[in-house]
Amino acid sequence: MRRAGRCGGGVANKRISVVSLYTRFRQSLDTVLDQLVAAGTLPADADRAGITVEPPRDPSHGDLATNAAMVLAKPARTSPRVLAEAIAAGLTAIADVEAADIAGPGFINLRLAPTVWAEELRTIAQEREDYGRSGIGAGKTVNIEYVSANPTGPMHMGHCRGAVVGDALADLLAFAGHKVVREYYVNDAGGQVDTLARSAHLRYREALGEDIGEIPEGLYPGDYLVPVGKLLADAYGDRYVAAPVAEWLAEFRTRTVAAMMDMIRADLALLGIRHDVFASEAELQAAGKPDDAEAWLRARDLVYDGVLEAPKGETPEDWEPVELPLFRSSRFGDDQDRPIKKSNGSWTYFGADLAYHYQKAQSADELIDIWGADHAGTVKRIKAAVAALTEEKTRFDVKLVQMVRLLRAGEPIKMSKRSGNFVTLADVVGEVGKDVVRFTMLTRKADAQMDFDFAKVVEASRDNPVWYVQYAHARIASLHRKIGELGIALTTPDLARLNEAELAVVGLAAQFPRIVESAAVSREPHRIAFYLGDLAAAFHALWNMGNDDPALRMIVEADPVLTATRLFLADQIGQVIRNGLKLMGVEAAEELN
RNA sequence: GCGCCCGUAGCUCAGUCGGAUAGAGCAUCGGAUUCCUAAUCCGGAGGCCACAGGUUCGAAUCCUGUCGGGCGCACCA
C-alpha cells in the first residue's frame, strides 16, 4: 500500500531571486545597527530577534515601522527615544527612505519614496506566480499527515475540513521553501477492517444471488460495498460462500481495503488532493516496527510492564486491573502512562501509531499531524512518544480541526451513521464545486467551529468572501476584454501617474510575501483567505471610485497611458490574488455567471 | 473529578512569534444611486477584548487563579 515515489506536491520547490520588501528593509536596518555597534552606541551582543519591520496599523504613520529602538534600549542602557534618534538618522541615509520619524514610545516610522511601490509592482510582474515565494523553510523537510480516514467507506464531510486544511498547509509550506511530504496513514489493521471484510462477504453472497435481508447490527450497511461484493464474486466465484471465516477473512480484508482506498483517493481527487505516501498500518506491523520501537524504549526504561489506573470519573462496571506494557508518557507531560499492547497481545492503536511516527521522523526534520478535534484527548500521548523517540529533536505539531456543521436554509442537516445516511464529500463537491468547498473551509481558524451553509457559500454578495475574491479577479480579467472591444491602443505604463489610493493598494499587495511567511510559520493557512478578502475589498473600493468620478475609472478611453498604467496595476493585483488562491488550491475565475 | 480547545461590537469572526487610537462583514442608523465598470456605493454609531491578579518600557496576545461554553477521559480506531 505504501507508495515509494515522493513528488514535491502541487507547488514545486524553487529558489527565489528577490527578497521581499520587508526583508530588504530589515537588512538595511541591520546595517544601520552594525554602524551603531561600531560607533559604540550599541553592544555587539544585543539580541535582535525581537526586532520587526512591518506596516504600521495606521497608514498615516507612514509606510514602514520598526520597534528596534524599544527592543534595544535596555541592552544599550539608554531610553528608547534617544536610541531612536540615532537609528532614525542612519535610516534617513537610505536612498528609498524619504523620512524617518519617531513616534509614541519609540517607534520609528519610515515614509518611502513612491518609486518604491512602483518598483514593487514591477517585481510582481517579473516574478509572476513566484511572487511571495519564500526561503524560510529552505533545507527543511516537513512531513504532513492529513486525512487518514479509516478505509471503511467513502469520505464524508467530517473528513473534508482536515483534508483541505492539510493540503493547503502543505502547499503553503512548500511555497515557503520547505520540502514537503504529504502522507496518509491507512488504518488497515484493527478490528474495524475485519468488520469491513465481513460486511463485504455479505455483499459477496448477495452478488451471487443470495437474499441477505437486513444488514445485521455491527456490520457496515452502506451500499458502497455492493460493487465490492460483485468484484469478489467475479474473483472467487462461490468458493467462499460457505467456507469458514478464517479461510477468506485475510483475502477479503485486503481486497476490500484496497477498494475502499481507491474510492477515497477518487474522493480526494475531487478536491484536488493527492498524497505522496500511503503508509499501511498492517505493513508497519508486519515489518515489526512496533516491536523495534518497544525494544528501543524498553532499553531506556520508557516502556515497562505495569497496571493501568482506573479511568477517571465514572469507573466502568467491567473494569479490571491488568498488567500491560506501558509507555511512560507521563514523563513527557501526559496525565498517565499509556498501554502499547492489549491484553490479547496485539498492538493498541497507540502502540502502532507511536512506531509510525518514529518511522516518519527518520526522514523528516519536522512532523505535522492534522486531526479531528474528537481526538484531542490523545494528543499528549503521541507528542510524548515523539519527544521520547526523537529525543526531543524533532518539531512535532498536532493541528486539531474542529467539526463543520452542515446547514441547509439555516437548518442543521441531520445525519445518522447507523443508517449510513451521512453527507458524503462527493455530494457536497458535486453540489457547490471544489473551489467553494476549499475556500470556505479556510475562512475560519482550524480550531474554531464552523458552519457550512449550502445557500450562503454560493451566494453572490459582499458577505460571501469566496464570491467576493473571485469577483475581484473576474473584474480584472474583464478589463482586457473591455479594452479589446473598445480598441484602445495600449502604451507603456507610466507608474508615476499612480494616485495615492492606488499606491495604497500596491502597499497591501506588497504584504503578500510576509503574509505567506507568517502563515507558514504559524501553520495557519486561513490567513491567506482573510488576506485575499482584504485585498479584494481594497481593489473593489478602488474600482468603485470610478462610479462617482469617471476620471478614476480603470479605463479612461481618452488617456491610453493612464489606462495602460491602471491596467498594469490591476493585473498585478490579479496576480497576487491568483497566487493566494493557488495556495488554497482554488482556481481563479476569469468570469462569473 | 481530570485534561484539551475556546470566551473580542447586537450576530458571525479577524487580530502579525507582546506594539501606537483593538479591526472587518452582517444587522442598525444617516446619506447617495436606477447606474450596466452588473450582481449597489459612501459614511456614522456601536468595546471594561469574560473576570481578578502577575510578568515589562508596553498585554486581547505570555503566566496564575476564578467564572462561563464546547470536546474528550480504560486494552476502541
What order do the helices and strands come in, and which of them pair?
Layout: H1 21-38, E1 53-54, E2 64-66, H2 68-72, H3 80-92, E3 97-103, E4 107-112, H4 114-127, E5 141-145, H5 157-175, E6 179-186, H6 191-207, H7 226-236, H8 245-270, E7 277-280, H9 281-286, H10 289-299, E8 303-307, E9 323-327, E10 338-339, H11 349-362, E11 366-372, H12 379-389, E12 395-401, E13 404-408, E14 411-412, H13 425-432, H14 434-441, E15 450-453, H15 465-486, H16 500-509, H17 512-522, H18 526-548, H19 560-583
Parallel strand pairs: 5-6, 5-11, 6-7, 11-12, 13-15
Antiparallel strand pairs: 1-2, 2-4, 3-4, 8-9, 9-10, 13-14
Helix pairs in contact: 1-3, 4-19, 5-17, 6-7, 6-8, 10-11, 11-12, 13-14, 15-18, 15-19, 16-18, 16-19, 17-18, 18-19
The chain binds one RNA strand of 77 nucleotides through α11, α15, α17 and α18.
